[in-house]
Structures are given as structure tokens and as C-alpha cells.
Design a protein that fits this description.
Layout (H helix, E strand, L loop, with lengths): L1 H22 L11 H18 L2 E5 L6 E6 L8 E7 L19 E3 L2 E3 L7 H18 L5 E7 L9 H7 L8 E4 L11 E6 L1 E10 L5 E2 L10 H10 L22 H9 L4 H8 L12 H6 L3 E9 L9 E2 L2 E10 L5 H15 L5 E10 L2 E2 L5 H14 L4 E5 L5 H9 L2 E4 L15 E3 H18 L1
Parallel strand pairs: 3-6, 3-7, 7-17, 8-16
Antiparallel strand pairs: 1-2, 2-6, 4-5, 5-18, 8-15, 9-13, 9-14, 10-12, 11-13
The protein binds ligand BES and zinc ion.
Length: about 450
């Protein structure tokens, strides 16, 4: 193991430079004008896997390609680990809020700023470098490895689910390791006990045959903008509880041990508030912020479209309005059931004079980890050795929909061990990744693979 760790130390500058090349490719999955870049990122990654010593291929899908790397030299009696990550990134807009260009990685204060640095290219590439260290310095790995990277995580992983189903034999493994989340705090590595799920919709409200003069018609014809506001306001009460009938029926009551674990983590709500520059925190009454984030569901408007929003005033009665509304779900809940409940709710609250249509965008099931066993133990000791502090168990508010599919279809347990830091601006301007976490994290992954052998 020591020669593998020395290899990492001796090559850190190169590992960093290579990551920056990866980050320069604007693999924005949501925008078709970047389809060529997204493919280029897949090919770049596949080449990197080959240079690390794996066999690798780029596999076409109806959407963005999948990259599949394999190394099976440990033999049929050794465990097989599937490493999953994504090479696509979120759109960088608003561009004028970036302090350095999103696709020109820039170092400031021990961080690299670039879109995808934390989510997820930086974290995915740490695995590639840890594999390379074993294969180049020791000539082998103690485990068989499959690396599966997709280019559609940020747009719902629609083509990955059928791929996993169709290739379950080839992807067969004992465990799945994913680094696409955060550490609890700087210098405080963690392993996840849960991820929230997602149910994402558009609510379309339609009124008259066309936009109308708001003086000539206002007062007689329902306004879709007002109606949509009524609908949105009906989703939560003043205590921050979701008011859809039956919404909480399946919400898991977490065990005391997990509740105590959450309470034991250092958390300063005032610091959190200040860092976010909000006048006050707001959330479901009776729960702490960490509980609100990790073990309670929520509902948010992600965007609204309606009426005249250009310069100056235009007296118009719009004939349509649309809101993008998403629910973060917790273990026990399912996107399908939430859709049914929301449909019933809309029927109940839709004001007269408009028609309301619900369109489903995408969803993902929430995940609850198995936190005992060899996998978590190996991760904990690898993280402690690399970071010098024991790893903590934590939940996460974000979603990685494919995790539950992996566990079900491959009959393997997933381990989520992330290296981003809170505040690293995922999906926002000025996304960054801490260089210290990148470097120590590669060491942690080297030890983890070693420990699983
Ligand atoms: N890496 C994130 C998930 C994440 C975010 C984990 C924050 C931990 C902390 C992932 O790439 C992501 O953004 N997922 C989407 C899923 C959606 C597009 C189905 C999300 O959570 O919005
Ligand atoms: Zn991600």
C-alpha cells in the first residue's frame, strides 16, 4: 500500500492539471448545443481510464453516452466494486455572477473554481486517479472494478436505468461506491445514511383564448397568474408543513439512533443563516435545520412563467401561467404516490374559471443506507487515515436517483462518500472544490480499495 500512496504524493500536480483539462470541456447535458462537448468529455474520460490501466469504452445511448471502464484482474473470488459518477454538468448561468469563467478552472484560496469541479467531475476523477495509483504503482488492485460514468445525471438519468437493466450481468458487483456529495465540514469526512428523492412537475394554468386588456376584462375573467399563486400558496401552511392530503402518510419515522447522530453534529444555525445572507431561516416547525434538510420532505417552486415581465408597465390580463414545482422526498415516500396526491390536491384547490394541467418532469426515489457492515467500516477507516479525523454519518438533502436502482437491480449495497464541502456552490455561480479534499480524498480512496480487497 505504501508504494501506492507514494505514487499519489509524487503525482499530485499532474492529477490536478489533468482534472483542469476535464473541467475545460463544457459538458452541459441540458443544452443540445453542447452535445459535441458532452461527447468529447465522455471520450476524454474513457481515454483517462485507459491510461490508468483499465479497459474502457464509450457506449452510445439515445441521449448522452455512457463510459464504462473495467479491470477484472483480481479474479472471480475477489469482490467486485462498481464506481458510479457523472461527467455532465449543470448550465453555468447566470454568467455575469462568475468571478472567473466557469470553464476555465481558476485557483483561489486553496480552491479550484469551475463548473463541475465538485459536481461531479472532480469527485469522479479522484476515483480514476486512485485506481491508476494501484494499477501503476502496485501493478494490480485487490478488487475487480467497474467504472460507470453517465452524461445525464443532471437531467434525470433517463437512459441509465434501462442500461443498468439490460447490462445487469456485466455490471454485477458486491458494492457500489459513489462520490457525488459533500463532506460534513472542512476536515470532517462523512459517509451518507440517506439521500432525499425527488418528484418534479410543471403546473400549467390556462385562462381565456388570448391575453386580454386588463381594464376591459379584468374582474370578469379569471387571471391564470392569480390562480397559479392561489395554487402555490395552498401547498404549504404557515408552519411550513405541506398541506396535500396524505402527503406525510408514508414518511419514515427515523430511529432514535439516527436522530441522536444528527443532534450530535456541530451545527450553528446563525452561522448558516449569515452565510446564506437571508434575514431568517424558514422551514417546517418543530424540526432543526439538519432534520429539515435530511429527514423531512419539502416543496419548492423552481421557476414561474407568467404575463408581462419586460421593461415598464403593460396592463395585460395573461391567459396562461406555469410553475415548475418540485418535492424533495424522504425514505418511505415515492414520486408516483406524490403525483397521485398532488393531482387530487389540484382538483380540490384549483380556482374556478381556469383549467389546470399537471405535467410530470422527472423523479427519483429516496435512499436509506445500510450503515453497518464491512463497506461502511472500510470507508470509515480509510477516511480517518487520510483526513486524520473519524468520519461522521450524515444525511443529504440532494438526490441521486440511480442509487436505489443500482441496489435493486444489481443486488448490491451502495456507499456514498463525498468530498465536496458545504457552500461549494453546486448548480450555482462560482462552484468550487477544495484542493486539499481532492488530494486527501484520492488517498482515502486508495486506502478504501485496499481495504475492500
Ligand atoms: N451531486 C448532486 C446531488 C447532491 C447534491 C448530493 C447536494 C449531495 C448534496 C447531483 O448531481 C444532483 O444535483 N442531483 C439532482 C438530481 C435531479 C436532477 C434528478 C438534484 O438533487 O437536484
Ligand atoms: Zn452530481
Amino acid at each position: 500500500m505504501s508504494e501506492v500512496l507514494s505514487f499519489v504524493d509524487a503525482n499530485l500536480a499532474r492529477f490536478r492539471a489533468e482534472l483542469y483539462d476535464f473541467l475545460r470541456i463544457p459538458s452541459i447535458s441540458a443544452k443540445s448545443e453542447h452535445d459535441g462537448d458532452t461527447r468529447r468529455a465522455a471520450e476524454w474520460l474513457s481515454d483517462a481510464l485507459a491510461r490508468a490501466g483499465l479497459t474502457s469504452e464509450v457506449i452510445d445511448t439515445p441521449g448522452h453516452p455512457i463510459v464504462l471502464g473495467e479491470w477484472r484482474g483480481a479474479g472471480p473470488d475477489a469482490p467486485t466494486v462498481l464506481i458510479y459518477g457523472h461527467y455532465d454538468v449543470q448550465p453555468p448561468e447566470p454568467l455575469d455572477e462568475w468571478e472567473s469563467p466557469p470553464f476555465e478552472p481558476t485557483e483561489r484560496d486553496g480552491r479550484v473554481y469551475a463548473r463541475g469541479s465538485a459536481d461531479d467531475k472532480g469527485q469522479l476523477y479522484m476515483h480514476v486517479k486512485a485506481l491508476e495509483a494501484h494499477l501503476q504503482a502496485a501493478g494490480s488492485l485487490p478488487i475487480n472494478v467497474v467504472v460507470l460514468a453517465e452524461g445525464e445525471e443532471e437531467v434525470g438519468s433517463v437512459n441509465l436505468v434501462p442500461f443498468v437493466e439490460a447490462n445487469a450481468g456485466r455490471l454485477a458487483c458486491d458494492s457500489v461506491i459513489i462520490s457525488d456529495s459533500n463532506m460534513y465540514a472542512e476536515g470532517m469526512p462523512s459517509v451518507l445514511f440517506s439521500l432525499r428523492g425527488l418528484a418534479y412537475f410543471e403546473i400549467h394554468v390556462k385562462g381565456a383564448r388570448s391575453d386580454l386588456h386588463s381594464g376591459q376584462f379584468g374582474g370578469t375573467v379569471a387571471n391564470p397568474g392569480n390562480a397559479l399563486a392561489t395554487i402555490i400558496a395552498s401547498l404549504k401552511d404557515a408552519d411550513g408543513r405541506i398541506t396535500i392530503d396524505g402527503f406525510y402518510d408514508d414518511v419514515l419515522e427515523w430511529d432514535e439512533e439516527t436522530r441522536n447522530q444528527i443532534r450530535s453534529l456541530p451545527f450553528d444555525a446563525e452561522e448558516y443563516r449569515k452565510e446564506l445572507k437571508v434575514p431568517a431561516l424558514s422551514g417546517e416547525k418543530g424540526w432543526t435545520p439538519l432534520e429539515q434538510l435530511w429527514i423531512r420532505p419539502t416543496c419548492d417552486v423552481n421557476g414561474i412563467l407568467c404575463g408581462y415581465t419586460g421593461e415598464g408597465a403593460k396592463t395585460v390580463l395573461p391567459n396562461k401561467a406555469m410553475a415548475k414545482v418540485s418535492f424533495r422526498l424522504v425514505p418511505g415516500q415515492s414520486p408516483e404516490k406524490v403525483k397521485t396526491l398532488l393531482e387530487a390536491h389540484l382538483e380540490k384547490v384549483a380556482p374556478p374559471g381556469v383549467t389546470v394541467e399537471l405535467v410530470e418532469l422527472h423523479g427519483g426515489r429516496p435512499w436509506k443506507a445500510k450503515v453497518e457492515g464491512k463497506l461502511v467500516e472500510a470507508a470509515s477507516s480509510a477516511l480517518e487515515a487520510a483526513f486524520g479525523t473519524p468520519a461522521v454519518l450524515q444525511g443529504e438533502g440532494g438526490s441521486i436517483p440511480i442509487v436505489v436502482d443500482f441496489e435493486e437491480k444489481l443486488k448490491a449495497s451502495a456507499l456514498l462518500v463525498g468530498f465536496g464541502l458545504p457552500g461549494c456552490n453546486l448548480h450555482a455561480p462560482n462552484e468550487w472544490f477544495a484542493l486539499d479534499a481532492y488530494e486527501k480524498g484520492i488517498g482515502a480512496l486508495v486506502r478504501l480499495y485496499g481495504g475492500l480487497g
